[in-house]
Design goal:
Radius of gyration: 15 Å
Distance between the termini: 32 Å
Number of strands: 0
Shape: elongated
Largest sheet: none
Number of helices: 3
Strand content: under 5%
Number of domains: 1
Helix content: 55-70%
Length: about 100
């Protein structure tokens, strides 16, 4: 029984890491598009993508609120603020549960 729970936790960790890796790719893509459009500040997107990569690599060691907020931010960017069927597929609204999580 304990082995099955550990296996499920490992599977969830892999899925969460994959999701955050996808988020990092989307941030880089958006930053690159911004540079082609002549937007200034695209390095902010690249910096955020690097931060997401760092969180993703150490996901098993980050506090639960950080993990939850990182995955919520990924969902907002990749799916839209109203979930996977949101046609906007762009972030909107608060990505964190506020100070102190």
């Amino acid at each position: 029984m304990a082995h099955a729970a550990q296996e499920r936790a490992a599977d969830q960790l892999r899925a969460d890491k994959d999701r955050l890796a996808e988020f990092g790719v989307a941030l880089r893509h958006a930053a690159a598009q911004g540079s082609y459009a002549g937007w200034r500040g695209q390095d902010v997107g690249f910096c955020l993508a690097a931060l997401v990569d760092s969180v993703m690599r150490a996901l098993d060691a980050v506090p639960a609120p950080v993990r939850r907020d990182a995955l919520a931010a990924a969902a907002a960017m990749l799916e839209g603020p109203d979930g996977p069927h949101d046609p906007r597929g762009r972030p909107g609204g608060a990505l964190s549960r506020g100070p102190g999580h």
